[in-house]
Amino acid sequence: MDSTLYLGTAKDKQGNLIAHAWLRSGPVYLTGAGEMRLFTTVAVFGTDYSTEKIEGARHESNLRA
Q1: What pLDDT is stored for residue 51 in this prediction?
Q2: SS3 for 57?
Q3: How many CB atoms lie within 10 A of CB 7?
Q4: Phi-psi map region of 56: left, alpha, beta (phi>0 left; psi -120 to 50 alpha)
Q5: Cα dihedral across residues 37, 42, 45, 49: positive or negative
Q6: What is the β-pairing status of strands 17-25 and 28-31?
Q7: What is the mean pLDDT of residues 25-51?
Q8: Which residue has the higher pLDDT, 60 or 36?
Q9: What whole-number distance in Å separates Cα of residue 45 and Cα of residue 63?
Q10: Taking phi first (over 0 means left), then psi (-120 to 50 degrees means alpha), and beta for anything else, what does residue 26 get?
Q11: Whole-angstrom distance, CA of residue 13 vs CA of residue 33
Q12: Cβ contact 23:7 at 8 Å
């Protein structure tokens, strides 16, 4: 089964760095989808990096350079 692990960072209300991870398989987010929009993607690990079929993906195309 193809899957992609995303790692993201953001700052909380006090300015502290916080991190979050979410997991996607095909078009389905298995974990972490509710909070992923609050974070900037800093790393992506997986077998399928296509953003065309992922609604709401952020910064992913910049990571494939």
Answers
A1: 53
A2: coil
A3: 14
A4: left
A5: positive
A6: antiparallel
A7: 87
A8: 36
A9: 10
A10: left
A11: 21
A12: no
Nearest-Å Rg of the Cα atoms of the chain is: 12
Residue 34 CA: distances (Å) to CA of 6, 10, 20, 23, 64? 13, 15, 11, 11, 24
- According to DSSP, the β-strands at 4-11 and 40-46 are antiparallel
Residue carrying the six token digits 């953001």 = 10
CB burial class (10 A; 0-12, 13-18, 19+) of residue 28?
exposed
Q: What pLDDT is stored for residue 59 in this prediction?
A: 47
Q: Are 11 and 21 in contact (CB under 8 A)?
A: no
* CA 21 to the chain's CA centroid: 7
- Per-residue pLDDT, averaged over 11-21, amounts to 97
pLDDT at 48: 54
DSSP 27: T
Quick one: how far is CA 33 from the chain centroid? Answer: 9
